[in-house]
Design goal:
alpha+beta, 714 residues, Trypsin Inhibitor V, Chain A, 6-stranded antiparallel beta sheet, extended, 21 helices, carboxypeptidase activity
């Protein structure tokens, strides 16, 4: 009996102990859940582990000589934890006015009162990640901000949250900016990057973006402790084919022409003949009267339009390759007009008319002559003409690395709009559509001895300043035609400049070969003269173009210039686009080419056995004259001087250039003249060799910084 009582007592004791323990646990749960809840939540906030993605530094986009065309610049976005553990009501109330005033002065986007109201409202809502401003600030401004009231207390007591936010900068401004492109980054719910953009930035995004790293951060007390698990790998640099100087010349000369003729848009592309490397690409559109910008559209690769007379090269190549015509054959162009069924085709104003050789037909861009050749030989078998076009390699996209290239449109006999007049109109560049870059690629192939190379915009990949990968020329077709045809069309293209529609481009230093184009612009379904097409006011609109290569005997560069919808009653390709082409080719020739054999620098002039001496930099002249042991009198005080040569002595004299006025650089060598004028904020274009014989802005004119001055050499 006693044993039974002992057992019951012990079991009861254990039972009561379990009951009491259960009540104790329940009490602690209730205490933690309802009494100490907020205390432990704040403690948890002080000790927190988060996974983080460590962004890799994005690589730069470089010019052909390594200068940065696009690069990342460090920046920061500012947020605030309005309920930070150490941010007491007393501190917040005492310093919110001062903080708001400092923020207003830093960001300059709203008043101090507005900042105070926004932060107070965010604190009432308990926001732990309130964005102070949409603006990004630099490291210098960040240092200032960390000294502001409240924020100077740090993350735990002041609620300051700083987030890295790099921005992309273009050191050369708008130069080639549409081709360089832009990008933006968004993150999905898992934190993965989603990159969107245009141009080279998106085409080479995988190269530029590198590989992000992985780490974690632990919040201990009021500070974060970071731990890197996988280090990020910075992106590589993309070395483009773009040449800054050529790009600058192309953009400035094109912008000047667009403004002069109030055109809707214009594009210019300069390509290296042997490699297809694009050295300059400009796309400007009219953003406002007299204002042209490059941020709208890449017309060179994304706008396919009827090319007009520049397509006549393809037509002649097909006819010559098939042997249906030769250069001295004669075509009757009648009175400059002819009928095909119910439609009349006319030559442009000023065409010669009558019986012309093929050379004259092409040189004078006779629509009647070209169309008659093609129509007479291919109207029964138009597929033969279309096959000939296809053999040239211009019936498909060029396959360039930049996204956005539109395919060419070469009408075929199965097209619903095919008619009896299609062949003659196609032959002169209508009822087909091509981009400027596609047209240029054909002309470049002619300059490149028949080898068609793919246009390229990137020549290599660089890592830490060293080239790790290079891209060679990519051949599309090793030969677009026979040697005989190639020789003949090159003669025709030279004839255009020597005796044809582009005689205004002819010069004594080097030969240009090319073709003018003046095409009416089709305005949607309404034809060529309707209103309401992309902002035009109605009437007939034109597209003026010139495409060619230089020097014609040993081509190094090809170039196309297209100007759309010039509005000041001048619309011919030789006048508008040809002038831009000539400015570009002159600058390139002066900088890159040797003097041709038929052009000799004038022999040094002697005055009683004293050599002729160019004007220039005073210090350099003194050094040279002393080195060759020539007597001279230095009567000058200025840095840049003129030279007088008397019977037995050379005299250095001041040019008396007033500050803020264009100096007289006649007699200077090119290097000295360019150095002096550019130091005054002028853009300088040089044509020819020797000494300066004339300048486009007269000496003594007031200097307008950024203006262009052209120097003509002897």
């Amino acid at each position: 009996m006693k044993l039974k009582r002992d057992i019951l007592w012990r079991v009861g004791t254990v039972y009561m102990g379990m009951v009491l323990l259960s009540f104790a646990i329940l009490f602690q749960i209730i205490k933690l859940q309802f009494v100490e809840r907020f205390q432990w939540q704040e403690q948890a906030a002080l000790l927190k582990v988060e996974d983080v993605i460590i962004d890799a530094n994005r690589g730069s986009v470089l010019s052909d000589d390594g200068r940065k065309l696009a690069c990342s610049v460090p920046g920061y976005k500012i947020y605030m934890d309005t309920r930070a553990a150490g941010l007491t009501p007393e501190v917040f109330k005492a310093d919110i006015d001062s903080l708001s005033l400092c923020l207003s002065r830093l960001f300059r986007d709203k008043s101090a009162a507005a900042y105070k109201q926004a932060i107070v409202n965010a604190r009432k809502k308990g926001m732990r990640y309130y964005q102070i401003s949409n603006q990004r600030i630099s490291i210098i401004d960040l240092k200032r901000l960390k000294k502001f009231p409240i924020f100077r207390l740090g993350a735990n007591k002041g609620g300051l949250i700083v987030v890295d936010d790099e921005s992309r900068k273009l050191p050369f401004g708008s130069l080639a900016s549409r081709t360089i492109g832009k990008f933006s980054i968004e993150r999905d719910s898992l934190g993965r990057k989603q990159t969107r953009g245009i141009g080279l930035e998106i085409a080479y995004n995988e190269v530029l973006q590198g590989k992000d790293g992985v780490g974690d951060k632990t919040r201990i007390g009021g500070r974060w402790v970071h731990d890197v698990q996988v280090h990020p790998v910075d992106g590589d640099d993309v070395v483009t084919t773009i040449n800054v100087e050529i790009q600058d010349v192309a953009e400035q000369t094109l912008r000047d022409q667009l403004m002069k003729h109030n055109a809707r848009y214009g594009t210019a592309v300069v390509m290296e003949v042997k490699t297809g490397a694009v050295k300059a690409i400009v796309n400007l559109h009219r953003a406002a009267p007299g204002r042209y910008v490059e941020d709208h559209f890449n017309y060179a690769i994304g706008e396919a339009a009827e090319p007009g007379s520049t397509f006549k090269l393809a037509s002649m190549m097909v006819a010559l390759e098939d042997g249906v015509v030769d250069l001295d054959d004669v075509v009757d162009t009648e009175d400059g007009s002819t009928k095909y069924y119910d439609r009349t085709l006319r030559d442009s104003e000023g065409a010669k008319g009558g019986r012309l050789t093929i050379r004259q037909v092409f040189a004078n861009s006779s629509n009647v002559g070209i169309s008659k050749v093609i129509f007479n030989h291919y109207r029964q078998d138009p597929e033969d003409f279309l096959d000939g076009i296809a053999k040239l390699g211009i019936n498909q996209k060029m396959g360039i690395e930049i996204p956005g290239e539109v395919p060419p449109y070469i009408k075929n006999t199965q097209d619903k709009s095919w008619s009896g007049t299609t062949i003659p109109w196609m032959s002169i560049g209508y009822e087909v559509k091509m981009t400027p870059l596609q047209i240029l690629t054909l002309y470049n192939a002619v300059a490149n001895n028949g080898t068609m190379v793919r246009p390229s915009f990137v020549k290599g990949i660089s890592r830490h300043g060293k080239i790790i990968e290079t891209f060679d020329a990519d051949v599309i077709k090793s030969s677009i035609c026979s040697r005989s045809t190639l020789r003949k069309v090159r003669e025709l293209l030279e004839e255009v400049v020597e005796n044809g529609t582009a005689q205004n481009l002819k010069n004594s230093h080097y030969k240009i070969a090319g073709k003018t184009g003046t095409a009416q612009v089709a305005k949607g379904a309404g034809g060529y003269g309707t209103k309401g097409y992309r902002g035009d006011e109605g009437g007939v609109s034109y597209q003026a173009s010139f495409v060619g290569y230089f020097p014609a005997d040993e081509p190094l560069y090809s170039c196309i210039v297209v100007v759309n919808s010039p509005s000041n009653n001048v619309y011919y390709g030789n006048v508008i686009s040809g002038a831009v082409f000539k400015a570009i080719s002159d600058r390139l020739y002066a900088a890159s080419f040797k003097v041709t054999d038929d052009y000799k620098e004038p022999a040094p002039l002697l005055t009683d056995n004293l050599p002729y001496t160019k004007a220039g930099n005073r210090k350099e002249l003194r050094r040279v004259l002393s080195k060759i042991d020539l007597d001279y009198d230095d009567n000058a005080d200025e840095e840049w001087v003129g030279v007088k040569v008397d019977k037995d002595i050379i005299e250095l004299v001041d040019r008396q250039s007033a500050k803020g006025l264009v100096p007289n650089v006649k007699g200077y060598g090119a290097r000295d003249a360019v150095s002096l004028l550019e130091s005054m904020g002028l853009r300088v274009y040089v044509t020819g060799f020797g000494k300066v014989v004339s300048q486009s802005i007269a000496p003594g004119a007031r200097i307008q910084r950024g203006s262009t001055i052209v120097l003509h050499m002897s």
